[in-house]
Description:
The protein is of the alpha/beta class.
Amino acid sequence: MTKLRACDPRRKLWLCLLLMVCSVVFRVRSQLVSGTMDVHWNEGSEDCVKNPQPPIQVHQYNAQTFILRESLCATYEAPFIYLLIGKTKALLIDTGAVADAKIMPLAQTVVSLLPDGGSRRPLMVAHTHGHLDHRSGDDQFRALPDVEVVPTDLESVKRHLDIADWPNVIGQIDLGDRVIDVIPTPGHYSSHVAYYDRQTGLFFSGDFLLPGRLLIEDTDADLASARRVAKFVEQHPITYVLGAHIELDESGKTFFGTRYHPNERPLQLTKQDLLALPGIVEGFNGFYAKRGVYVLMNQNRILILLGVGAVIILVAIILILRAVWRRLRSRAGVR
């Protein structure tokens, strides 16, 4: 009968390291504050005049985390807005597409969700990026006490969100026993950022990644951002990835420019979706591509191309009309 060989010390060391890593990961995961995505988002209406909808839908993910969505009847963009509340401070991510407080009472709604009506809880209003559908509600907050509205230009983002070496470092926002990591994600917009909540494991991706069109202005920057994010999420537990819009139905059909979204697919994406993003962006041709359920577009280049095409068609029509006119005149002269 052969004797069992003594266990290789190096194997013991690797086994101990593996057990330590697993225990750390388990502790981190077990410490995440849970929440629920059991919500049916308002699908808007085919006729918003006959069937008006509430301006804002509020979903309570947990006691300190709220997801707000502006109504499709108020704006076809129907952007998502996120409110994260810490012990000493609160963070609002984006302010939506509607400026008029009478149509979209965003500030009033947000203040009502803060403990003590926000009277003792400073609020930081930051953004994923500076497109108008993410910052139009800023003015509703500027006159409120204890509110800081972060501008969306790159220098302001770097200064207020503690990102000196853009885009190579990750900033932090401390809300009091709740730290939010701020990851630079330029590509869709030059000062785009994503947010990671260490307390819940939620990753707020803005327009960088969402169920729908991925609009890319700078392909190289977007690819670098995708790789940066993939490296980050490899080392962090991700509960859900929450973008700024839903543009797909359950069958994969794209909604665009419509105020009625029947059978929308869920808002939430996964850690695997973030990890797969570098491969999706890597093959983008700079104009238009389809990768699975995602449509990648450079809107500026497409608009320029369409504009050039329209000019060519217009010139061709003018030349044809001119030629016809000359022919008619020549015939009239012969008579």
